[in-house]
Amino acid sequence: MTTISVHAEHTYSVVVDRNILGLIDEHLSGVSKVAVIHPKSMSEVAGKVRAKLSGVTSIGIEIPDAENAKTTQVLEFCWSALGEAGFTRNDLIISIGGGATTDLAGFVAATWLRGVKVLHVPTTLLAMVDAAVGGKTGINTAAGKNLVGAIYSPIAVICDLDFLSSQSSQDYISGLAEVIKCGFIRDGRILELLESDLAGAKSPTWEHAPEIIARAIQVKAEVVGNDLRETLGTSSGREILNYGHTFGHAVERQENFTWRHGDAVSVGMMFVAQLAYLAGRLDAEVVTRHHDILAGVGLPTKYDAGSFDQLLTNMAIDKKSRGDQLRFIILESVGQPAILQAPDTALLIAAYAKLGQGETHA
Ligand code: GLY
Q1: Number of structural domains found in the chain
Q2: pTM score, two decimals?
């Protein structure tokens, strides 16, 4: 079992291993009621978890799948359920699900009685290496995605790798994009492990899967521990976790949110790799390395939506850009992120052209 400490508002552990749901019991001291928030697809697991909790009463709160969970209506539904159960400040919310579940349940916990404890049990690779760790919580509103939220850290995160075998292969591979991102921005060992067997890495049963997942979580823990509220604004701040995301979010919007997040981040990383190369900040061989690893595990590395104008507009409204200037996290080498502020539009268009051709520099 690997245990990773996250130093946030308080210090908490992320544990990674197989068959570890029994560890939930260690977090029940002083708790009299537990609310398990989960989507329908996790009903059976939630039932089993509830049946095994000792010395507490529990309720289950079933929410819609994926992004449909992150609405004000579902939030109100959860608040009502907690109210009916007489949920107090000493009680505990447990989330069991993917990133949308941890985002919503975290926000319910942040807002009920101005904050009750929450423990996350992420069931997808994306949630394990990203959403469940770092305390970002929130919902979507008419104004946009994730504009309403809070930083609210869990008391623990339990990553039971047994869940990953029930994910579709495409969803697991999409989650690998965030793992690869962590390799490029900080931990090159992740890249070396992947390169040792790119075909094998596509499966959650791969011998090195536990190690690359734990290493990605360690990267996130270190970055978040250094800049929980993303206020640093430097190349060691939380913003580096957005590597590939500015273009990736623009692609998600362009594709009406039909793309998997990791797939969009994959083309986003290819885009910024090309951009950094064209800006004279990154060697061609690292661009090739992006291509070979991403394509090697089955992630998209080519993207062409026709005109660049709409993508540029999408990037400008991405909340990650500061003020009215576009801002990209780029690499200067593996493990060395940097900030590229307000690049020339001609450079962006040239990087987009390379992305459309799937250029590899090899
Ligand atoms: N997903 C990026 C972050 O947590 O900051």
Answers
A1: 2
A2: 0.96
